[in-house]
Amino acid sequence: MGKILDAFLADQLHVESGTERRTPEHQALCEKSSELQDQLAETLNDKQKAILEELVDAIFDESGLSEQAKFERGFRLGVLITSEIFYAQDIFL
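^ thats the sequence. predicted structure below, dont judge the formating
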């Protein structure tokens, strides 16, 4: 991946200066997920809790990698669309 995309994905290049706000729907899902995880953890022994924590971490990491790949693909597609538009700009002049 290119240096600019790497910086952007590593949160070293910011698009906005403000913090991203969650939608009410997203916030509700985050709270429900946390609640369910806590409820499940209460019913598990220490070894099972460790496995649950490891599972949640693995899902989080996998999700992050998936989102990174989707972002990169979408960004590259956007650049290709832009280059195609510039290539054909003469038809409008």
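The mean pLDDT is 85.
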